[in-house]
Amino acid sequence: MKENIVWHNTSVSHDDRVQLNGHRPALLWYTGLSGSGKSTIANAVDRKLFEKGCHTYLLDGDNVRHGLNKDLGFDDDSRVENIRRITEVAKLFTDAGLIVGTAFISPFIADREQAREIAGTHFVEVFVDTPLEVCEQRDPKGLYKKARAGDIPHFTGISSPYEAPENPEVHLKTDEMSVEEAADQVVSYLVQKGIIG
What we know:
The chain is an alpha/beta fold. The chain has helices at about 15-20, 40-50, 60-65, 75-95, 110-120, 130-140, 145-150, 180-190; strands spanning about 25-30, 55-60, 100-105, 125-130, 170-175.
């Protein structure tokens, strides 16, 4: 089947889109435990970038599982496929010149490395580093309580491992900073790297 599939170039190039947008594309890959603050920080960054006139889109883990990935569970194989699909979608968005945020637990180093390989130079790993005990205290969805009771199998941090990033581009220690400070650190990184002005 693959031999019958050919990549088609578009009449509007990636460079054309970047020039029109006025900034370079990026894939901000927020990773961390459930309740670490990934979605909250990603939304705060998205708002700041939007207010600066940047073209952005945010792919949230729960939202994607309502549609594109609704057929996937939470076992290890499903988590791998979830991340692969999301990376492919994000790659299309960065090709369009957008700054894309993705808020997924993405617990395995190998999966994040695969995402980095697929996304290429646009990939920016943002480690939302929050201690497990803080995440459990927050527990906004009541998931840790259910996981501790054995009601949720394969729950990251409890019955399934989380492999922390070894060299993230941005490291946010959320027990030591506010959401605003964390968002500012991400935006500052984008300015330093010349992704935004």
